[in-house]
């Protein structure tokens, strides 16, 4: 038995267990198996998609009760076998992908994080206050980022490019891990691994710009700047994935703007205090601790209002 066939059977067994119901320990064991190998996750998602498709086919072909009811109440092993049969009939083996033409939207609110697992094995980590839409077909994989920030861990597929649309920019993966942040018309891309291509969809500056590992691409209406950085800078820029904010000689005004992305209560810095520079690592959702550190460490005036914390020089 080849390795992929073995993984398919393991995926089928996990689906059968999941159908019967998993307790906390079982769910943890499934998560461990899914995260241990990309091939595991791909096989599981593919088979689950086929299983759901088989459910829909049964429902469409048998209105009311009858066969549909018998399918839904069948033993999991028989449902898995039927899904595997359909899996082989539709294309066979590990080469098959099941594509949903419909788009799927995901949203995080202020202070929320979410991880999205796509059926091709790719992963999207969504930052605070983010909205995006995914669409996977047999020829392309597209994500439209309407607002916010997301980290993309893409499974390479030479036949289906992975494209992120953010405002007036198209970011095409060339086998990589990267983040895209959109603030209105401004789009910033940070490349953790591999390469990306950033293109302008319209306008005079339509040339493509290539970003490599540790590059930060800053796109504004006028064009795109490529900044060569260190791996440490990339880690700091993506520290939100660990719930952290890292500042290195940032102004207090800029730090407040970052904190305000993650908290409903806002940090308002006024007067000359805005230009004070700070450094350090802070919890993104712990505004009160940051305000206390600013008060004691910088000897600034901190006023706690109902929906805001006002910081100024004494």
Low-confidence stretches: 60-76, 88-101
Q: What is the architecture of the largest domain at the second tier of CATH? A: Sandwich
Q: What form results from the Cα inertia axes? A: globular
Number of strands: 18
Please indicate the count of domains.
3
Average of pLDDT: 82
Helix count equals: 8
The H/E string reads HHHHHEEEEEEEEEEEEEHEHEEHEE
Largest sheet: 13 strands, mixed
**Cα distance spanning the termini:** 74 Å
Radius of gyration: 24 Å
User: What is the percentage of strand-forming residues?
Assistant: 25-35%
Quick structural summary:
Helix 1 crosses helix 3 (38-61), helix 1 (3-20) crosses helix 5 (76-90) and helix 3 packs across helix 5. The protein has 314 residues and is an alpha+beta fold. A hairpin with a 5-residue loop joins strand 2 (114-117) and strand 3.
